[in-house]
Amino acid sequence: MLLPPSEGKTAPRRGKPLDLGSLSSPSLTPARERVVDALVALCEGDPEAAARTLDVGSTQLDLVDLDRRLRESPTARADQVYAGVVYDALDAPTLSPAARRRAATRLAVVSSVFGLVRPADRIPAYRLSGGTSLPGLGPVAGVWREALGPAVLDAVGDGLLVDLRSSTYAAFWRPSPEEARRVATVRVLHEVDGVRKVVSHFNKATKGRLVRGLLEDGANPRTPARLAEALHDLGWTVEVGDPGPQGTRLDVVVAAL
């Protein structure tokens, strides 16, 4: 299950500094080095210019400093660093021991700095949106489009990829037509009086709950249709779309948060 990162993060207060060589998916280390070097170099210069590049306000220069200290800041498990609606709903610290073991091998987060991280990977807090272009490097999405595919496919193996990324992070890697057969994308629709629409908060919270439910249940569906059945068994209303270039879309329809 592939999740987007969160803009908000919980900065670790203590812990070892960043060690890129210790992260999962070691094939991504060269790309990670390039992104970290470019981000740190940007933030070691003019803070206000860096803030404009990072699209943060002039009152948020602490975020620039956070990136400047990326290599020496304390790290913690990624599932303790990422915060926000998706991760509040997932509530990883309260998962059962069995669900936490499943999360270690079935869950990954797409990151603009690290490409792909597992829950136990130790990372610092950072600020870098997926749509940012860094001086001397260019768009970070372009860096990951070139590097991310083999790592994603290695993580999936011969199983099903449940793609829960937002559109920004979907640009980091897109499946080939052959690969798309083993991809299920999930869209959450809020239905009120027969009218359906996408609402960001419902979308994020529901995705977090879906992931939590699948981890606790232990279901390991290998096709989009089986995934829809597993979600239905967990009490969700799910409609299966036709296969497309990004995979088979599942619409999860909710009436209340």
UniProtKB/TrEMBL annotation:
InterPro entries: YaaA (IPR005583). Residues 18-27 have a biased composition (Low complexity). Residues 1-27 are annotated as: Disordered. It comes from the Bacteria. PANTHER family: PEROXIDE STRESS RESISTANCE PROTEIN YAAA, PEROXIDE STRESS RESPONSE PROTEIN YAAA. This is Peroxide stress protein YaaA. The lineage of its organism: Bacteria, Bacillati, Actinomycetota, Actinomycetes, Propionibacteriales.
